Amino acid sequence: MDWGLKNRLARIIKPHSDRGVMLAVDHGYFLGPTERLEVPRKTIQPLLPYADSLMLTRGVLRTSVDERYPIPVVLRVSGGASIIGKDLSNEKITTSVKEAIRLNATALALSIFVGAPYEHDSLVNLGKLVDEGEEYGIPVLAVTAVGKELEKRDARYLALSCRIAAEFGAHLVKTYYCENFEKIVNSCPVPVIIAGGPKLSTELDALQLTYDALQAGAAGVDMGRNIWQSDYPVPMIKAVRALVHQRVTVKEAHEIFTKNKEIEKTPKPTPITNPSYPIKAKTKSTKSKKTAK
Ligand code: 5RP
Q1: 251 Cα–ligand 1 center, Å
Q2: Among 149, 225, 236, 237, which is best to mutate for testing ligand 1, by the most ligand atoms less than 8 A from CB?
Q3: Is the pLDDT of residue 128 over 60?
Q4: In percent, how much of the chain has pLDDT > 70?
Q5: Do the bridges between strand 78-79 and strand 92-93 make them parallel or antiparallel, or are there none, so unpaired?
Q6: Which of these, 141, 126, 132, 17, lies nearest to 75 by C-alpha position?
């Protein structure tokens, strides 16, 4: 691995903790205006200070993220199928590496669909993307997608997908948490991060899932819905961040969530907007008109 690629990876998986918090907001690429991500800028902006990196498409990046904000971008470059189409696994590379460089992307992301009708194409896409990415020192995140078959989220299937992704050269793999998660991590020679999946009933459930994944060896999260579909997204990402980097317990993380939620709920004092203030004081010139001449 060359210096540039290692440097980019270190912006995602932080060296101080060997872990990372990636905020996933790429859902629209096949789901359209996902609940609470209808106006991407509104969802993303308050969460930016608490994410190490941001995973999204070029469309949302260009339109909804301030280009002056220094957050590493993990650019989704695969797509081509929608939730109402025939087959979610029918993806191609939709954004070039040249464009990713123009957008100053730190990493490239694509989905692989092991066991699905377009398994072969998605794996060949991955191999080619790794070749191209490595030419420019840009790492590739492989997402082990399950399409609509959520029941595929078991250790046997996900270990197979993650291992294949690593064999094809992915530098980082994203998968779902499941029982026996250690099996996935131990048989995958590159760091594994977890997606949150569909919104769980409570924030505590999502924090527990995150904690369990980290305990089993996950290198962090690439989480979306369980953060921004919460009624309190900022307290939620702060709690997830504490689990990832400060290695707090679930109880401590939940306390962070609750404390920050209470702060958000506390009504802020309304600023006094007396129209007669501030009074523009009539300033007397210290210099007399004569001397001023
Ligand atoms: C979809 C993705 C999403 O980024 C991924 O599912 C993470 O988001 P969530 O935590 O909402 O599951 O890659 O293919």
Answers
A1: 25
A2: 225
A3: yes
A4: 92
A5: antiparallel
A6: 141
Q: What is the pTM (predicted TM-score) of this model?
A: 0.91
Give the residues surrounding ligand 1 with Cβ less than 6 Å away: 24, 26-27, 55, 111, 143, 145, 195-197, 222-226
pLDDT single digits (tens) 212-235: 999 999 999 999 999 999 999 999
| Contact (CB, 8 A) for 197 and 225 | yes
**45 φ, ψ (degrees, to nearest 5):** -50, -50
Distance 268 CA to ligand 1 centre (A): 34
pLDDT over 60 (residue 264): yes
Give the residue numbers spanning the domain of 140: 3-263
Closest residue CA from atom 8 of ligand 1: 224
Residue 128 annotated to the active site: no
Given a contact cutoff of 8 angstroms between Cβ atoms, the answer to whether 103 and 138 are in contact is no
Q: How many domains does the chain have?
A: 1
CA of 261 relative to ligand 1 center, distance in Å: 24
- Separation of CA 194 and ligand 1 centre (Å): 9
CATH of the domain at 68: 3.20.20.70
Options 152, 174, 238, 261, the catalytic residue: 174
- Residue pair 91/80 in contact (Cβ under 8 Å)? The answer is yes
Cβ neighbours for 186, distance < 8 A, ≥ 6 positions apart: 217
Question: Hey, is 273 helix, strand or coil?
Answer: coil
Does 273 map to a domain? no
What CA–CA distance (Å, rounded) separates 39 from 156?
37
